[in-house]
UniProtKB/TrEMBL annotation:
Family matches, as InterPro entries: Rubisco_LSMT_subst-bd, Rubisco_LSMT_subst-bd_sf, SET_dom, SET_dom_sf, SETD3_SETD6_MTase, SETD6_SET
Keyword Transferase on entry: yes
Keywords of the record: Methyltransferase, S-adenosyl-L-methionine, Transferase
SUPFAM superfamilies for this protein: RuBisCo LSMT C-terminal, substrate-binding domain (SSF81822), SET domain (SSF82199)
Organism listed in the record: Dichotomopilus funicola
Entry annotated with the keyword S-adenosyl-L-methionine: yes
GO molecular function: protein-lysine N-methyltransferase activity
UniProt protein name: SET domain-containing protein
SET domain span: 33-292
Classification via Pfam families: Rubis-subs-bind (PF09273), SET (PF00856)
Length: 508
């Protein structure tokens, strides 16, 4: 965040103006006897809210009246360009007059437009003191240089940055609307922005929304769907068309930092949102919200940071190509197995990809228990199974190979569930080893980098992400080997039968 480089007095001034503005809002409350907004830049956490006294569970720390939220329902922009905001408009299928109307917008793009509009208004915006303390630069990979991105090594995160898609979305849905309504965004006398400047501003607002905005659901709604029960009775805060709940910027609630272990919850009431403590909090502790059971890679992609506690939710993606290639190797190296010609193998691959459930890659993850009702992490976090969809796709592959005359190994695996599981696990272990080698550094190298604090900033975050992935790869291999040992024993006993050596051994 660029605020990292603001001089301390300017930073403190921004905090002060914001806190004063917030507490003067009709309906807002803030327990300044219990909490305060602090400068946490030394630990790269921007602003955060810290307990200044011991706080009991179930205490309301602050209240945000809904009229203080920035969203489509509160910004004056909606009345100025109503057609753009009419998500159900006309027939919902046209982009009339190039103004990005109805069909092309969603809650995300509308909030970008709203934030750009309010930002350009400057002092005329009712949210000026709040907008002033929002970040202007981000640590999300979208803004990393190629050298910084290369530190992610073989992480799938590198392919999910989506800069080009974001540029395209901004050009077609944001710039087009702003240009079609020039006088609304740039009233006479106000300075114009070039397309390049607007593109940059839209990126900044899009990233702010990603890291700060809330889905404006009601507590009595189903998840975040905005449907408060009967499917029809929706209040004006909820625009839920095809699951598109209204997004909004919630001042003060978004001053809370977050972690996998947390102590406070934002409740969404009819007229206001409230921050309520989930357990007793000691003076000096940080008030923490929860963004969900996110792997560090996803935390980095959306919010631009990582934490050790989120490591338990880390995942790693393994491509199907890798699994397929390892099976091919096993078939080709197996004694007595028929070798498949290159043409046959191409047909096999095509056939598997025709399956309606075909998946390009599989996510390997641990089984985790949810945090308890007080926000504490409890219970096990361990790797317990390969994805079921992978096992199913593996069977589809075996069938396709059998059709192509793929030999004994495949035929046996199709006939016997245990042999199939064994082959699948062997192939998975092979694939996980190859997947691990796709990273430039080893798990041990990354452990050392983290243990000695030698990787900091963006590089440090990249190391946390790639190390988390390697840890899953190792844990998955260890688990699969354990399963293979048990399976080998079972298969051995099965092949000798009850009277065979295994049965005799048991009787001794
Ligand atoms: C909703 S804001 C929280 C307030 C923010 N710290 C600020 O100064 O405006 C979310 C952003 O705060 C930062 N953040 C949140 N939780 C954090 C944590 N546990 N450690 C470091 N940074 C954190 C990240 O930059 C994230 O994108």
């Amino acid at each position: 965040m660029e605020i990292d480089s603001d001089p301390a007095p300017a930073f403190a001034n921004g905090t002060h103006n914001f806190a004063t503005w917030f507490q003067a809002l009709t309906g807002a409350t803030f327990r300044s006897d219990l909490v305060s907004i602090e400068d946490l830049r030394q630990r790269h956490a921007g602003r955060g809210i810290i307990a200044t006294a011991d706080i009991a569970a179930d205490t309301v720390l602050f209240t945000i009246p809904r009229h203080a939220i920035i969203c489509s329902a509160t910004s004056a922009l909606r009345d100025k360009i109503p057609r753009v905001f009419d998500l159900d408009g006309a027939d919902g299928d046209s982009d009339d007059e190039g103004e990005g109307s109805s069909s092309s917008q969603d809650s995300w793009t509308l909030l970008i437009l709203v934030l750009i509009y309010e930002y350009i208004r400057g002092s005329d915006s009712p949210w000026k003191p709040y907008l002033d303390i929002l970040p202007s630069a981000f640590d999300t990979p979208m803004f990393w240089s190629p050298a910084e991105l290369s530190e992610l090594q073989a992480s799938a995160l590198g392919g999910r940055v989506g800069k080009e898609e974001a540029d395209e979305m901004i050009r077609t849905k944001i710039l087009s609307v702003i240009r079609a309504h020039g006088p609304v965004f740039f009233p006479s006398g106000s300075p114009q922005l070039t397309d390049t400047q607007l593109l940059e501003l839209a990126h900044r607002m899009g990233s702010t929304i990603m890291a700060y905005a809330f889905d404006l659901e009601n507590d009595d709604s189903e998840e975040n769907s905005g449907d408060n029960g009967d499917g029809e009775d929706r209040d004006e805060w909820v625009e839920d068309r095809e699951g598109r709940t209204m997004l909004g910027m919630v001042p003060m609630a978004d001053m809370l930092n977050a972690d996998a272990e947390f102590n406070t919850h934002i409740n969404h009431g009819d007229d206001a949102l409230t921050a309520t403590t989930l357990r007793d909090i000691k003076a000096g502790e940080e008030i923490l919200n929860y963004y969900g059971p996110l792997p560090n890679g996803e935390l980095l992609r959306r919010y631009g940071y990582v934490t050790p506690k989120h490591s338990r939710y880390d995942v790693v993606e393994v491509s199907w190509d890798l699994i397929e290639a390892r099976l091919k190797e096993r078939i080709e190296s197996g004694s007595g197995s028929g070798v498949i010609t290159a043409d046959d193998w191409d047909n096999v691959k095509q056939r598997v990809r025709l399956d309606e459930d075909f998946e390009e890659s599989f996510v390997f993850e641990r089984v985790n228990e949810d945090p308890d009702a007080t926000g504490r992490l409890s219970g096990d976090s361990a790797f317990h199974a390969i994805p079921e969809e992978l096992s199913n796709q593996f069977k589809t592959l075996l069938k396709a190979i059998k059709k192509a005359g793929g030999g004994e190994l495949v035929a046996q695996a199709l006939d016997d569930k245990d042999l199939r599981k064994q082959l699948c696990l062997q192939v998975v272990v092979d694939a996980l080893q190859v997947r691990e080698r796709q990273y430039l550094t080893s798990l041990e190298d990354d452990d050392r980098l983290i243990g000695t604090d030698r990787a900091t900033g963006r590089q440090g975050m990249a190391v946390w992400v790639r190390r988390g992935e390697k840890q899953i790869l190792r844990e998955a291999q260890a688990w699969a080997r354990g399963e293979l040992n048990e399976l080998a024993q079972k298969i051995l006993e099965g092949s000798y039968g009850e009277d065979g050596p295994a049965a005799k051994r048991r009787r001794i």
